[in-house]
Amino acid sequence: MLNKPADIAKLYIMVGYGKTVQKSWVLFLLGIFAGAFIAFGGLTSQIVSCGVAPAALGRFLSGVVFPVGLMMVIISGGELFTGNCLIFISVLSKETYFSAMLRNWAFVYLGNLVGGVAIALLANFGQVLNLYDGELARLAVNTAKSKIALPFHIALIKGILCNFLVCISVWVSFSTEENVPGKIASLYLPILLFVICGFEHCVANMYFIPAGILAKYLCGYAQDASFLSFLTGDLLPFFGKNLLPVTLGNIIGGFLVATGYWLIYLSQPDDD
Description:
With about 270 residues, the protein is an all-alpha fold. It contains 11 helices and no strands. About 75% of the residues lie in helices and about 0% in strands.
């Protein structure tokens, strides 16, 4: 059965409510799973695009692989911060409280961070990034550098654009409830678009940037390997220069989708 957009809007009211009443430890653990799934998508997207020329082809290959991460979140079970921005629909519909949404976000965000960093650690210490004679490690380092170097407003805007598409992807995945291939196909394409366009996803960056920072020190690319250099030169910029603006942008992008569809389909009483 195919759910129409208005049906999805009504369905998500209760989906969002269900997310806000989950136990905190469940949200945290499901957040770890989701963070790891997205990290696997990120890692594999770099493996398939590493050294590919022209660059546009490499970006396309990344886009083909990366959506597998969200597929695992939706099909296998996970709580993803960016997708959970749609809980705002339930808040607008007065089925849950704003504070309950923030509680969900807090535990899920922390879980996503743990999952992403865990895969970054394992990929480095498991020497996965040693592929292609270390070229993959250099790509990881350069990716982290470029993300941290983004101006605040650019990271914010790219975060808005990214989560607009991610939330659309989650939205369209509800168009079919039982047809798994159809669900995968529907969520796949918007994610393909955001990767090709180079938008910024905070949960993906919870893998990409820690992986690059670790590779920088483990593979000898750091000129200064002191703890102070790691803290002020890498760790603080990761949170302040990238994760903060991208997260804010992702929230805005999610709110645009949630508010727009609430206004269209849920703000007025049913005609019947």
